[in-house]
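Please check our next protein.
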Amino acid sequence: MPHAVINNARLWYDVMGEGEPLLLHHGYTASRVNWMPVAERLKDEFRIIMMECRGTGESEDTADGYNIPQYASDALGLMDELGIEKFSYAGHSMGGGIGWWLGVHHAPRLEKLILMAPVRSTGVDMGTGNSRLQARLDARNRGDREALLAPMRAMRFRPDVETDEWFEDRVDHLLRVSDGHLMGGMETMRDLDLQDKLPTMDVPTLMLSGAVDMLLRANLEDFMLLPNASLHVFSRAGHEVAIHEPDGVAEAMRAFMRHGPVKLQLP
């Protein structure tokens, strides 16, 4: 698989298919795996570009740069490396936070923006203080897979796709993520503060949400502030929307890429 040195970080990426460029970015402790079912369904129609951010997957563990502005800069740098001026961006969870940043600060580079279960535009606290984060770090340092698996299993509601193998793979990703990304990623999601900019963010946007996701309410609140956006909520999806509903996500993205957002225009 190819790598490119972007902003002094050796980052993994891959390109699948031809046509209109569409960059897919994973979430906080995930990797390309979380987008792969959708990428496979869209690669015959679009130029699918996948990347893994610094400190995750096959990308380099850098000494610093674990924050949303830097992740966004790395995404833009990869597009520069590939000679792509304008592109569409799809981000899941923390990748959606990167999408918020791109939409607010780098709108001229974007054709369209897809936010799949994005973190709240006003930031999200994933635990009281750093207690949950510290517990996760402690389990990682002990190599305690069961402590990492237990909360994942407790939230399982789609056993047809959330298999034991899937959870084991998620733990593998979590164990691989660098401490710098684990800490910095948590802090940068907490500190995100862009909601006041959303009413003027005119990039054509599609928000994809899961009805069984704790971020649904935040997604709905952010969506209502967007002037040029469509919303699709999947009734049988949680936070891992692309894993729970890959066919539906691919079809929603395909329609949006072709036709743009559709939103009720009130008199």
Observations:
- The chain is about 40% helix and 20% strand.
- Residues 3-123+192-259 form a domain with the Rossmann fold fold (CATH 3.40.50.1820).
